[in-house]
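Q: Hi! First time doing this. I have a protein sequence and I read that you can turn it into a structure. Is that right? Here it is:
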Amino acid sequence: MEDKNLLELRNITKRFTGVLALDSVSMHVRQGEVHGLVGENGAGKSTLIKVLAGAHSPDSGEIYFDGQVFPSLTPHQAMDLGIACIYQELNQVPHMTVTENIFLGRELKKNRLFLDRAEANRRATEILKEFELDIDSTTPLGLLGVGQCQMIEICRAVHAEAKLIIMDEPTASLSEKDAGELFRIIKALKEKQVTVIYISHRLEEVKNICDSLTVMRDGCVVANNRISDVTVDNIIHLMVGRDITHKYPKKEIAIGETALEVKGLTRKGVFEDISFSVNTGEILAFSGLVGAGRTEMVRGLTGTDPSDSGEVTVFGEKVRINSPADSIKAGIAFLTEDRKQQGLILIQSIEFNSTLVHLKNFKKNKFFLDLFGMKNHAGKIAKELRIKAPDTSTLAGQLSGGNQQKVVLAKWVMTQAKIFIFDEPTRGIDVGAKIEVYNLINSLLENGAAVIMISSEMDECMGMADRIIVMHEGRITGELQREEFDQGKIMYAASGISST
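A: Yes, that's right. Below is the predicted 3D structure, encoded as structure tokens:
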């Protein structure tokens, strides 16, 4: 690896209204290395990346890239310099082919009027072979899995002759197999002297894949280290400014009456004969591999998607749930895994989102809402949940992932819900924000709620749950009490294999 800086930032400062987002940030990234960028949600990572991508202009400071110096970059300059960003929400067109997505914005032309599709397909196939990807370049992108789509985005950056590829939470939605494939591609990029900035809350990944590390907190850089010089515990302490003594703050709460009982819930071809119960004071976790049908099952349970048959009882009373409105009426709160698309209205404020489920409580009359009452309620709940924002008029889309998750939870706190279903409650949020979410779940339990948690992180299930139900291909294949928790047993059941 060349010991040469490809990127150096000197005293980059960026202010938004009322907020100092970046405070004299300085860092350097060597050519051909994988450089980790970590920090709590709201630490300034996203703003920094947007400065590099040309989406934000810094108020002061200098950007040195490949021997050139810039006060700021435009998106076009960043692309021309060879800076490519791969975000969590991939910038792709599903109905177009793999080739068309690789060449998107940089199409090959025969002449002024016609595209050279044959040559584009040939080159796309070469790139795919170079990275040992078994993907047909003529396949519509929408037919590929999330992991494969991410690989295509990397191929697109390679076609654009990127010198620096910025990956934002690249494994957040990937299976273990797809994550392993991504790590193989990253090593191949290193061999080609392509530099990678790797942003992730999965600190073990950062420790394993990165060569060096920058840690941010409250808009400042608090550490620039070689990865070999730090432990995961060191990184956590630098990120949060304190020691996290209990990664999973499980509380011993008395388990009460049966809150929810489900019998024979079925949707043909998706999930079949799902039966379980959960009590007040209890966390019931659903574990399983990608495609096990866990999310589809709770969407069927809550009326978000249809189910063919099944019986649902809430606190001893049979209920019919055909729609989300029926679910809410029954006292079931469903916090979806996709908070940006389905949990929040990003162009609306914290106060609007946090009162959305129970707007009827803020009616002045038949025609007008009590806006003052909404603002007071939102301010109170934002303080209780420690939502970090200048004020409650801040748009949900401007918040960090952890704070967005808190706003989703705020929606339900004022309702009469006693059964909370969390689908991937800590996906894409940092270790400090995770602790806060776990503590909020504990508070719900202490107030007599029952919690169902779907998580792809086995450690999270084992750390917080009282029971774990395992699913495989739409069926329940195992159930373990807390004293029986064992990674091997869970993996056997998740793979559909008997552990006898």
